[in-house]
Amino acid sequence: MSEPTTKPATEPASTATAPQPAAAQNESGILPPQHWAQLAEEGHDDSSDFEDAGSSTASLSSSLLNYRTIQGRRYHSDQGNAQYWAANDDAQNEALDIIHHVITLLLDGKLHLAPLKDDIQKVLDVGTGTGTWLPRARRLALSYAQHGSSPGIWAIDFADEHPSVSVLGTDISSIQPGWIPPNLQFQIDDCTQEWTFPENTFDYVHIRWLFGSIVDWTALFKQAYRSLKPGGYIESHEPSVSFLSDDGTVNDKTAMGQFGKFFVEGGKKMGRSTTVLEDGIQRKGIEEAGFVDIHEVNLKTPVGGWPKDPKQREIGKFQQLAVLNDLEGTMLYMSHIIGWSRDELTVYMAQLRRELRSKDIHGYYWQKVVWARKPESA
Ligand SMILES: C[S@@+](CC[C@H](N)C(=O)[O-])C[C@H]1O[C@@H](n2cnc3c(N)ncnc32)[C@H](O)[C@@H]1O
């Protein structure tokens, strides 16, 4: 991945520019940066369910692994055609671990929805995610201790739960932990390049949260189809990038309502959709690849401790923690692509943090899991 070269649609606003009316929006629906500067002058309640987990520092291994540094944050090195929008340093990786916990809670502890048989042998997790888990786990221990649960990553949890299954996790960043179950391996691999696994290798392919990373989803699912054994399962799990509410507390004029627009616009500029869920890309691509017996489930994911239901409240609090953990590492690249300066982003993020912490704002987002089978006759 290289520093984004895409020209911003509009020049970033300079401080000399006269402030625009707060409501002024461009075609993408993104409010101008001045809107958030104006808003910052107002006072706000900063109550939070969790403490912020602090900011990131670049790892010593950066130079060895040729990671890129963009405005002080670490991003993946050149890998094939890969272009990924989030930082890959500690703060962002912590956020990923917490998201994994959110998803595990949403799925009642299940690591898959596809009906896997007990005798499966090989599993592939594409874009497996986080690493350097041990130091992060230590720092997160305080937050997690009171909840009696621990962070982890999908591939590690799956390998732990299925000791007789060989699990392979691939990613463009070497951010996985060194201590892992003996039946788990990691491999650096750009999943958008031609897969080199022999045909009919895996019993199950798991692909989660690759929105904004894939140019051609059908091609990706076709590669999964080819590498799966007949009767094997694909499972695709993707979120919407848009925060919603049922009572209007999240809307186009709020920072939470604006959040998704950065990603939708940035994804368009990258040529890598971030509206995978909204556009039904998972089912369409899986069907086109030749899979049968397609099922899907939508998961409503609260953000913040506002739900009355205790389980939903717990999920919402962890989701809030995940987003607050590293807003910058999540948003910096996309905001750069759409032409915002870091300072402008900082002002916007201050308001976003206030809204994320507010109990009066009842935000949530959707996630969609689609799973399907490669025909036995294939
Ligand atoms: C949002 S994270 C999700 C991680 C993990 N799947 C999970 O659900 O916890 C996306 C991951 O996909 C990886 N990624 C992005 N583009 C990729 C590509 N072309 N090939 C392989 N991995 C990729 C990123 O490095 C990152 O670790």
From TrEMBL:
<dbReference type="Pfam" id="PF13489">
    <property type="entry name" value="Methyltransf_23"/>
</dbReference>
<feature type="compositionally biased region" description="Low complexity">
    <location>
        <begin position="1"/>
        <end position="25"/>
    </location>
</feature>
<comment type="similarity">
    <text>Belongs to the methyltransferase superfamily. LaeA methyltransferase family.</text>
</comment>
<protein>
    <recommendedName>
        <fullName>Methyltransferase domain-containing protein</fullName>
    </recommendedName>
</protein>
<dbReference type="InterPro" id="IPR029063">
    <property type="entry name" value="SAM-dependent_MTases_sf"/>
</dbReference>
<feature type="region of interest" description="Disordered">
    <location>
        <begin position="1"/>
        <end position="33"/>
    </location>
</feature>
